[in-house]
Amino acid sequence: MCHDSNSRAPYPPISGGAATGESIVLKAADGNEFAAFAATAENPSGAGMVILPDVRGLHAFYEDLALRFAEAGVNAVAFDYFGRTAGVSRRADDFEFWPEVMKTHPDTIALDVAAAVDKVREMGATSVFTVGFCFGGRNSINQSARGHGLAGVVGFYGMVTQRNDEDSDAPINKVSTFEAPVLGLFGGADAMIGADGIEAFGKALDGAGVANELKSYEGAPHSYFDRTFDQFKDACDDSWTRILAFIEANG
User: Fold this and answer.
1) Are strands 75-79 and 47-52 parallel, antiparallel or unpaired?
2) Strands 47-52 and 182-187
3) Who's near 83: CB < 8 A, 6+ residues apart?
4) How far is CA 81 from the centre of its chain?
5) Phi and psi for 108 in degrees, rounded to 5?
6) What is the Rg, in whole angstroms, of the alpha carbon atoms belonging to the chain?
7) What phi and psi, each to the nearest 5 degrees, are found at residue 36?
8) CA 132, CA 116: separation in Å to the nearest integer?
9) pLDDT tens, 204-228?
10) 199-202, long-range: CB within 8 Å, 24+ apart, which pairs?
11) How far apart are CA 63 and CA 79, in angstroms?
């Protein structure tokens, strides 16, 4: 299970300020228009975050998460993958996302990320990060190689090794081109992402001289942060703490 449709984003383990959010439409360099959600902090820290969702695209969870970041002083933009194939209108929870996921491509995702990065900078961010989940976790990590001028990338339970011989987008094979530090967060009980793969990825990052921190939470499943967060409160709180520390260290 990659997600819980009724999940809400956990709160950062700090006293949050006020934040405002709005639905927007962004345009990529190739002309693609896609839906996004921008959250602005009342007391911005100068950091910005681009949120790469899971396979659901711009689900309400990620709009909620953008507000959580803004409450922590980090202006944020969450964006949708499916502008090219499903338009910019809002979708119901029963949206058939898998056919749209299969039409995405790493290059066009990177173009959309670039537009979201530009938007976050327009909102006042002087250091920009990405964070992604599952499908978005892998894509977030790979943005380190996309020339966005990022201060760091964060990936929750993204597949970092090759799925099969045809998998040409595995982060482990791209580390020599990474330009930003990596924070990887994983569930220790994730049946899809094994400890051996995470360890191999860490060694590859070290070998390429890429600053990194990879953390696995014992007993936490895949998508632990997306589910009813009080089930995995300790892992969620620690994940938030690590993200905020990562932003402070690299911002």
Assistant:
1) parallel
2) unpaired
3) 32, 33, 34, 35, 112
4) 12
5) -75, -30
6) 16
7) -155, 170
8) 13
9) 999 999 999 999 999 999 999 975 5
10) 200/161, 200/172, 201/160, 201/161, 201/171, 201/172, 201/175
11) 9
CA distances (Å), origin 125, targets 44, 45, 121 = 8, 8, 5
Residue 26, number of CB atoms within 10 A of its CB: 21
Composition of the chain by helix, strand, coil, percent to 5: 35, 20, 45
Alpha carbons 115 and 44: distance in angstroms, whole number: 20
Dihedral pair phi/psi, residue 149, rounded to 5° = 70, 35
List Cβ neighbours of 64 (8 Å cut-off, separation of 6 or more): 8, 9
Q: How far is CA 84 from CA 26, 103, 229, in A?
A: 12, 9, 32
By the 8 A CB rule, do 226 and 54 touch?
yes
What domains does the chain contain, in order, with CATH numbers? 19-250 (3.40.50.1820)
pLDDT digits (tens, 9 = 90+) for 135-173: 999 999 999 999 999 999 999 999 999 999 999 999 999
Q: What is the pLDDT of residues 73-89, one digit of tens each?
A: 999 999 999 999 999 99
> Beta strand pairing status for 152-156 and 127-133?
parallel
Do the strands 127-133 and 19-27 form a parallel or antiparallel pair, or are they unpaired? unpaired
Write down the mean pLDDT value for the chain.
94
**Are residues 249 and 154 in contact, defined by beta-carbon separation less than 8 angstroms?**
no
Angle among Cα 108, 224, 1 to the nearest 5 degrees reads: 70
Instruction: With beta carbons less than 8 A apart as the criterion, state whether 116 and 36 touch.
Output: yes
At position 138, the amino acid (one-letter code) is R
